[in-house]
TrEMBL record:
Record Pfam families: Methyltransf_24
SUPFAM superfamilies tied to this protein: S-adenosyl-L-methionine-dependent methyltransferases
Protein name (record): Predicted O-methyltransferase YrrM
Single GO term (MF): methyltransferase activity
InterPro entries in the cross-refs: SAM-dependent_MTases_sf (IPR029063)
Keywords carried by this UniProt record: Methyltransferase, Transferase
An example Gene Ontology biological process: methylation
Entry annotated with the keyword Methyltransferase: yes
Amino acid sequence: MKFNEVSKLVAGIPHTTAEKGKVLYDIIIENKFINCLELGFACGVGASYISAALDENGRGRLTSVDTPAAKTRSPIANDLIKRVGLEAYSEFVFHELGYNWFLMDAIEKGSRFDFCFLDGAHTWDVDALAFTLVSKVLTPRGFIIFDDLDWTYASSPTMKNAPAPELMRKTAGVRKVVDLLVKPHREFEWLGEVAGMGIARRL
């Protein structure tokens, strides 16, 4: 499916913008990724862009993981992906304990992915572990994209009143993961930032 087609179908649905969707779409098209992983899918907009790229390439599979709380979203990701006609490329996993527990199982099973879009908790405690676990299942030359590099509870329109310690409220957790874990990592090459997202490739 062409980018402009999927972009029109998901317009106005949170949270992945068309600008970010274009980055995801182009990277998958250019690198011909096949086994894709998404951690945190909300309404399924990011999954729609990824699945559209797989469809355009003519093959591939996306596994998207979130908690059962994602079933309270409107629209629900399963419904959106059917609406855009790309359900053949996508599987949504509503894991009761979240994506790090899914990754534990993936490591045990020997699963491998060549692309990962990390767009979930955005906190240091969750996503530092997520990156560490993803590094165990990401294939050589595989990409990982970190969304919302500078997101904080304090700056979030929807989460600013959520109860959390002040240090957590003010810390851009994804930025800390990138600066302290990804950039110094000997097995990863930092490729830069675009549209508020960070991109790294496993060597």
